[in-house]
Amino acid sequence: MAERKLLLDSTLDSVEVAETAVLNAAREIGFHEDDLHQLGMAVRESMVNAVVHGNRYNARKKVHLSVVKAPDRLTIVIADEGDGFDVDTVPDPLAEGNLLRQSGRGLLLIRAFVDEFQVLPGQPRGTEVRMVKYLAKAS
User: Fold this and answer.
1) By C-alpha distance, which of 113, 2, 125, 1 is closest to 58?
2) Cis (ω within 30 of 0) for the bond into 124?
3) pLDDT tens digits for 79-89?
4) What is each CA distance from 107 to 41, 49, 97, 110, 139, in whole angstroms?
5) 94: pLDDT strictly greater than 60
6) How far is it, in rounded angstroms, from Cα 73 to Cα 136?
């Protein structure tokens, strides 16, 4: 397994950097175009959450990106240095009262686009998002 780690600034420019790094790794192990699109969306959503909600654009805080390539999967970990949050307190974007809200759909999208998704407390603080996408085998 090969791992690549990046330490990114809390800016929206870092979203693009993270997406590019993940998609390059995904291409190297053979992900198809549909999977690449889904991975890109999941990484973008996670990075925006880390920069905007986690670190709140604080220039002193960083976003930690880890991309691990294995023959059959890609594991992506995105961690911010913010105050952290409890994923269970995020309102359900599909609940009737939330359908017209402008935010809150990111976690739903991420879950739909990756095979495994975890939100963990960061160490020593912040939030860590772990995503795994398996390489589909041609049958």
Assistant:
1) 125
2) yes
3) 999 998 666 55
4) 11, 9, 17, 5, 31
5) no
6) 9
Q: Strands of 127-134's sheet, edge to edge?
A: 2-9, 62-70, 73-79, 127-134, 116-121
pTM over 0.90: no
Alpha-carbon dihedral of residues 137, 106, 37, 6, nearest 10 degrees? -90
For residue 9, what are the β-bridge partners? Answer: 62
Tell me, rounded to whole angstroms, the distance of Cα 71 from its chain centroid.
20
Domain 2-134 = CATH 3.30.70.270 = no
Give the whole-angstrom CA distance, residue 58 versus residue 55: 6
pLDDT, one tens digit per residue, over 62-74 is 999 999 999 999 9
pLDDT > 50? residue 139: no
pLDDT band at 77 (very low <50, low <70, confident <90, very high): very high
Rounded Cα distance, 1 and 20, in Å: 19
Nearest C-alpha neighbor of 29 from the set 63, 64, 60, 67: 67
Is 111:117 a contact under the CB 8 Å cutoff?
yes
